[in-house]
Protein 1
Amino acid sequence: MHKLDLLEDQFDRQKKIVWWEQERLLNSKVLLVGAGALGNEIAKNLTLVGVGQITIVDNDLVDLTNISRCVFFNEDDIGKNKAELLSKKIKSLRNINSDYFIGKIQELGIGVFENFDIVIGALDNREARSWVNEYSRMFGKPWVDGAIEGLNGLVRSFGIDGVCYECTLSEEDLKLLSVRKSCALLSEEEITIGKVPTTATSASIISGFQTQEALIYLSRKKVDLMPLISQQMTFFGESMSFLKSKLKEKKDCYIDHECIKFEKIHLDFNQKIEELINKYNISPSSRLYREIVSNCLCAQCDNKKVINKYISSLKQKDVLCANCNSEMQLETEKNIKEFINYSLNELNFPDNELIISEEKYILLTKEI
């Protein structure tokens, strides 16, 4: 009883805002993608206002350049995983629930978005933004994007219909994005877009607006009440000025702007796929939503290597021949009947991943 009273006192000032719903915040789940300068500030803000569950995704390690821009990182943290460290730090700041995933957002099952109320992007590359955009839309979740450069920055929000992130890209942007998304052979160095100048102040400003946008949605649960839905607010730090502009939906956007309907099945990922087909009455003609790289073949020495990974999880070392160090050719597969003697775990099948069975979407999740 005393604990509840303390929580009520702690949030007293913000609860005086007419439309504020503290209970909704306490029951909300936020997916934060990126744990750098923006991610640190967003995580801090969400924690202080009392959001109940914060899941953080990042594949990077803390380095010296992060120290001046990231409130939770110091020199003793250099070399540690950003996502894990940030999750631990905010839990020590307040008694909240937080977990993390060390890796790229592309390595998670695409159905992970279904588990959250809203997604906040603290990203520095188009590939990750594109991924968040496509699958948050597929599962009907709004997301708030932010970016900083020098003293400037921008914030924009995308809802469950209408304009999406891809609609904002030029033809040249889309061409480059298509090449990078399809190429599994890029090294981590090659796929990282050049570092841009940023400051702690610009991160604080932009992250504040991102968090505010998310809180308005979480308190009201109405996308159309988000001030920046389908709009972009650009901040010019040197002149301390703002420009707000409407984003236009592309009628020929290649992203499906409709949310999907799906069936969810909880199952044991150690079972063979043949068992799953029989047990859950899944059609043998079902197919994976995303292709799996089943094998790699070396054209130079005929070496063959079993891979069984999604292309989004491949590293350059995975496709180099162990015999002659040549780049190997990829064999991909979608039909599940080709994998009937494998378990989902043996296929590196991620939790919360889709298959398509007789034109129906089925979301496969691990039994707890």
Protein 2
Amino acid sequence: MAEQNFSNHGRFFPPFHFFVVPVMTINFFWSIYRWKVSGFSLDGFESVVVAAALVLGFLSARIMALTVQDRLIRLEEQLRYERVLPEELRWRSDELSVNQFVSLRFASDAELPALMRKVLDEKTGGRRRVQFAVNEASSETVSPSGFVMVIC
């Protein structure tokens, strides 16, 4: 399996994104159209309700799967923090939100303490903001002379 990083972590799952979502969306709007054409009958209303339930059911299943994925990432990161972080930051890891935990997973072991301190001290919120901070830190390396070099 290829290593996951900031540029490749989001991806489409073709059966879901390119088949299920379009079919459910078309079915929902088709049900609304058929309900309108039938003169807003009770039978047409029932079709709209069933179509809406299917859309909500599939979207809810997707959200639940992503929530479990986030919880698993948080558990993996907590184990990593025990190994990598100094004592002071280990205790502060409880202050991180789930989004911050998920975003910090792309930080290398060497840059994690500084990035975590920055996220906690500056109250950086939102996945994208933390991921961009990790991405920026990952593109910098320290030369033997102590100067920071930006890798383009």
Protein 3
Amino acid sequence: MKRKLLSLLFCLPLALFAQTSDSTGVTVEADPRIDKLIEKRKEAFRIDSTESGYRIQIYSTTDRKQILLEEEKFKMNYPELALYMKYDSPNFKLRVGDFKSKLDAQYWFNKLQAEYPTLFLVPDKVNP
């Protein structure tokens, strides 16, 4: 019995050493499109990619054609501001800007007020 136990203790380290190897001989070849799909999925499911801020609502209507006309008109006059169309049944709302502070939003509010007299500031989630 002692002889078996002694030989087991002697062979065990050799067996463990035989299991470790630097090269496994396994080569994984993956299609590079898989990495692109993984990145797209990460982008699509990114957690809370927005932050609190303000937008200016410049127009609201139930007529989709009218909101699209206003959208084009605004893009032509103010290409530097981001434009967002939101649908809250039954209204389409046209909002502009990604303002992190109320002061920044107020500057544009004052600038746009002559052209859009019914506009107002809206607390919203904005893009960074």
